[in-house]
Write a structure and sequence with these properties.
single chain; about 130 residues; alpha+beta; two-stranded antiparallel ribbon; about 65% helix
Length: about 130
């Protein structure tokens, strides 16, 4: 591990992804009609769209510019503490918060696809 990732560009990608995700959230709420009539399913779908937008922009942007940041991650562990389950990510060097964000967005992208497929099917075919 001779080269560190460009944390400034990762931070810019993260902020850009957050802004795009928030814009998609508000736009999808408006387009689905959630602002006129409140319902749970369109709200969850809008939130999932926003999650996909944020995580997709950040995760794939990091892959395109930095290559895989997986090499900086020592371990990903799931720890059960009583009734809580926590994801613990250990990075190669201390203070690399964007590496942890990369790991979270990688998981968020996968988790966001599931409610969109499930709720989209219910919304369209129920």
């Amino acid at each position: 591990m001779d080269r560190q990732p460009a944390f400034k560009s990762l931070c810019l990608r993260q902020v850009g992804g957050l802004i795009a995700g928030a814009a998609v959230f508000v736009l999808s709420l408006w387009l689905i009609g959630q602002l006129r009539q409140q319902d749970l399913v369109p709200f969850v779908m809008s939130f999932a769209f926003a999650g996909i937008t944020f995580s997709g922009l950040f995760y794939f942007g990091a892959l395109l510019t930095e290559g895989s940041l997986q090499k900086y991650i020592v371990s990903d562990d799931t720890v059960i503490k009583g009734e809580r389950v926590e994801m613990v990510t250990t990075t190669a060097s201390s203070g690399d918060r964007q590496i942890g964000t990369y790991t979270i967005t990688r998981d968020l992208f996968g988790m966001s696809i599931i409610p969109v497929r499930t709720l989209g099917g219910r919304y369209l075919f129920a």
